[in-house]
Amino acid sequence: MVVMVKYSDDFKQEVIAATRKRHEPRAQIARQYGIAASTLQNWLDRFYAANPHEVQADHEALLKERDRLLAEQAELRKQFNWS
């Protein structure tokens, strides 16, 4: 027998916001919130379908994070004299 759990809209919004903000693997975030990774993916799919402009916003945030990490890596390479 499969038990269906009904999550509140507030809980779903909290998990989606955490996923978008933290840039961690979705499976890890799902575990932290005690939900299945597929459930989180379904919520994200619905969120992005209803808010297509947020896809671009998240993409830009990830590009900024990538640039920050690359700059940090370059600085560490200089500090430790690595090629």
UniProtKB/TrEMBL annotation:
Pfam families: HTH_28 (PF13518). It comes from the Bacteria. InterPro entries: Homeodomain-like_sf, InsJ-like_HTH. This is Transposase. It comes from Nesterenkonia alkaliphila. Residues 11-47 form the Insertion element IS150 protein InsJ-like helix-turn-helix domain.
